[in-house]
Amino acid sequence: xxxxxxxxxxxxxxxxxxxxxxxxxTEPDRPIGFIVGQNHxxxxxxxxxxxxxxxxxxxxxxxxxxxxGEYDPQKQQEVPKSNFPPGMELQRGMFFQAKGANGPVxxxxxxxxxxxxxxxxxxxxxxxxxxxxxxxxDVRKLTPQEAQQLAxxxxxxxxxxxPPGIAGGTIKV
Length: 173
Known about the structure:
Blueprint lengths: L7 E10 L4 E4 L6 E4 L7 H7 L7 E6 L13 E5 L14 E6 L2 E10 L3 E5 L9 E11 L3 H7 L16 E3 L4
Parallel strand pairs: 6-10
Antiparallel strand pairs: 1-2, 1-3, 1-9, 4-9, 5-8, 6-7, 7-8
């Protein structure tokens, strides 16, 4: 069966930067799954998976504007250190997800100063051309039970860099 809208697809992937550095991916033999056409996957990735079948492998290229956008220096901000939980040891490179005025906001700490923290609100992959090495495991129709469970609104698009258990909370940015 070929991948098309409405089908359930599982696949493994490794994510690489244009220069060849691996920056993410699934664990071996632990594919991820999604329903095609439900905005659970980056549209550029989904489009390139269309027509593939179980057992097929491919290299998929995704341009910055098709993924996380171009890097925007205006998205660097200085925020008061008091916006972070008291006693939290803040370090350059820490990745957070917090509640912003318009929903979840992900950011990286660029610098920690005496009274302020410089944060970068760009996605860590903004401005990067990406390569995904994929292997399709399964392509099938949903069972009625799966359709009911998986048809519920999902929170956003699949993000290969959103690690489980990241720091976060009620940080104002």
